[in-house]
Input
Amino acid sequence: MKQKVLFLCTGNSCRSQMAEGWLKHLGGERFDVYSAGIVAHGKNPRAIAVMKAAGVDISGQESEQLDPAVLNELDLLVTVCGNADETCPAVPTSCEKQHWPFDDPAKATGREGKIMAEFCRVRDQIRSRIEKFVNE
Output
């Protein structure tokens, strides 16, 4: 039976999208993977670009707002930012909750190269955490 995992972020535009993509890519058939936001901001084009550069296409994923009813169907809820961790609705006892905080690359400023470097750094951090999770 597949483990149902949801990655939750503030806007479901960067970090949770990348985490969903990495777990689908690295976890294979072992997981049903989703992502959502406290609100839905739409996908960040830079997140799509850096994931594509790493060989993972997240362009078909949706940016969705969390439906609290979904929590009853999950095995694991992972918050990837402090705001999502603090504002997440109550999780049923049947669902494990973990917090994996990552910096928000969308807050990076400066020249485009510097911003993209930040997106790549966070992308790689998320990949490392997902690899650890898959191998546990």
